[in-house]
Amino acid sequence: MRFKSGVGVCFVLAFGVSGCNGGGGSDSASSNSRIANDAVYGANIFEAQQYMVKKSDYILHYVYDQDLSCFGVNRFDILAENGNTISARNPDGEVSDIQIEAGGNAVSSTYQGVTFSFQRVAKTEGQITPLCGNPQAQGSVTVVLTLQDLPPIIPRGMDHVFEWRVVFDVDGSNDVSAGDVEFAVSSDRGPETTAETSTITDIGAVLWVYLEGTQTNNTFSTSVGDIDLAVDGNLITMSAPKSLFKGLETINTMTQFNAEANYRGTLGYHADFVPAENIFTSVQDTGDVSDDLNDMEGSAIFVDFTHVSVVVD
Hints:
Layout: E1 11-13, E2 16-18, E3 40-45, E4 48-54, E5 58-65, E6 70-82, E7 85-89, E8 95-100, E9 106-111, E10 114-120, E11 140-147, E12 154-155, E13 160-168, E14 181-186, E15 197-198, H1 200-203, E16 205-212, E17 219-232, E18 235-241, E19 257-265, E20 268-274, E21 289-290, E22 305-312
Antiparallel strand pairs: 1-2, 3-4, 3-10, 4-5, 5-6, 6-7, 7-8, 8-9, 9-10, 11-18, 11-22, 12-15, 13-14, 13-19, 14-16, 16-17, 17-18, 19-20, 21-22
């Protein structure tokens, strides 16, 4: 999953389709032209403002996210330019062609018989604000959770809910508040499945951001996108590129966090927290924070933390 528009429907790019199953198609135009580098094209599609900006070897696509009240951005690598046609590869690896209309003042894309047009606008890229993420940001934020004992296979279904998550106190308020981010593996927020069992990796990991709202602590969260997840023995590793969300760029090993692992279901309730429930750490370096053995609520050792590590590069 990539940055989405807040309208909950697929959005059409100037060079294909993103946010939908099935990928994109080819576009059509009738004349030769080229798009100048840094030219900005805009459109309002499904009530979401969108912009396309061409660079020398890639295209940036901005979509306004109504939940986050900012523009998410994806990068599409240009594979070839031939006259009025540009071949580009989207973040999912799909390749589509775009064709440019006469004069380079508009770009059209046709999908399922409907044509969407992006028009040249009198705007610079720097005026596309506010941004949810910075596609030029380098590095990543990684959290490594070490549990006492992780099972290779877990039961699934409404009777078995598993969750491992880390919330970063991005703004340093010492409370969960707008702008804080969460790395989470959560079976009740993951992809639906009819399987009776699965691996933890099958659940997937998601980056969430907290917003102003009306739920507990006057905040609620919305997903930004999928992030990398790996499970190796008793280690759960989640990693997100800083380019995914602007708040990740401010996280370092002095940013405090709260980690939680819990199980809710027919086996009862079992949970562990680092350092404690609803409490953020207060350490000089979050690179390796240890936790007491067997200090969990309940008896399930797969929720019992031994270490939580944060790596920022």
